[in-house]
Amino acid sequence: MGRASGKEKTGPRSSWKLMRENGGLGLAAISYVWIDYLRYVSPSWHVRLQLALWAVFALAAVARVPFYRQWTPELRAAFPFFASIFFMLSAFLFEAISVRFVTAVLGLDWHISASPLPDTGQWLLLSLNEKLPQIVVDTLRAHIAGLHHFLMLFVMLGFSVLFNYVKAPGLGLAARYMFTMGIGRLLRAITFVSTILPSLRPWCVTSRYASVPSHPHPWAQKYYIPYASDSNAIRRLILSDAHYATMKEYPAEHRPDWGRMSFLINILRPNISEGSTWYQLLKKASGGCNDLMYSGHMLVAALTAMAWTEAYGGWTSALIWLLVLHSAQREIREHHHYSVDVVVAIYVGIFLWRFTSFIWSNKDKSKARRLAKLEELQGRLVHAAKDSDIDEIRDLLVEVDLAGQEQEGLPQWVIWVFAGFATVFSLTCVLLAFTWTSDG
After folding, report:
1. Nearest to 28 by CA among 51, 50, 46, 53
2. pLDDT tens across 143-175, in order?
3. Other CB atoms within 10 Å distance of the CB of residue 298
4. Is a pLDDT exceeding 70 seen at residue 21?
5. Please, is 274 exposed, middle or buried when counting C-beta atoms within 10 Å of its C-beta (0-12, 13-18, 19+)?
6. What interhelical angle do 147-159 and 2-41 show, nearest 10?
7. Per-residue pLDDT tens over the stretch 364-377
8. How far is CA 356 from each of CA 55, 233, 243, 307, rounded to the nearest angstrom?
9. Positive/negative CA dihedral, 75, 80, 84, 85
């Protein structure tokens, strides 16, 4: 009776704990998205509530730091974390150079005159606008979630290790996210630089890249322009597989002195008005003005949804996937990307996230280590059981249990110094990320 009664008492407590663990982070995520949407409904309340919410999140995270017991695994994950940051930033640099190249190589005139490609996804959305109730159309058009929302949702997921919502180490989860992002960005740059597609917004280049030369790059002058519209020339090129056409006369290319970085001149096509260094030119760069296959925004969204699905699960993950789909149709509806860019970004994000599970996984690795140790000691356990050697069995089981535990091996002061550094560094990275992505 006593044992049954104990179960009855722990039942409600277990239910409350389950509800708290599966609901707290989800409610925080919903609160953030809802409060941020107030910028379109009530800007004044948006400013007040957003500052209050961010302050609550930051204070809650800092207050939990002294009570967090997983700093040793976090310290072990520090090297992959910083290596992933370096890799991701390197991928961003390669992507920025590639964006400038595909924008500048054909010249300003090509971007202005090139017609957008036919997109059946856009046709479908326009057709649905005529058939769906207006409230549904307005909801589909609403700016509910953008790039900074998905970044913030992942940040919340990462910091939730402090509250035991997500399996530690949080730096391991962040390392996987950034490493996967880096791979995705490299693949994206390789993809869109391979074949140049016209923009869905032909006026974009005159507002973002007005200083780009109007004429094509010498490479395009020789290998593209003579064969761009003449079908007979294209047929002859296919048959000969060699350049033969006569090139037109174009203005000479500007060639500043960039020292060791002069090899970038042919790629970036600098102009006199864009500064004297390659770094100044790239600092002024923004999103490309031709279509970039695949969507970088949707890659971020897909990776965030995959991280939530594996690390947290539940109804919140389903809600985030709905936000991903909503953002996807908005990217198409607002002519930021072709439908194919959005579709490819989502399944690339899914596949890449599954590919990088070796960095961080929600699976219990300690259980696998215990099973491996148990298999190793199985013969000795059987022998001890036959000999009825209880002490030997106990020692072997203790050895199995220790195999699944994390080894400390570090002074306490090192752990606390690292905890303070990791907290300050992470919060600083969050502020920088939102500053740099505030314009979408």
Report:
1. 53
2. 999 888 999 999 999 888 888 888 888 899 999
3. 25
4. no
5. buried
6. 150
7. 666 666 677 667 77
8. 33, 47, 43, 11
9. positive
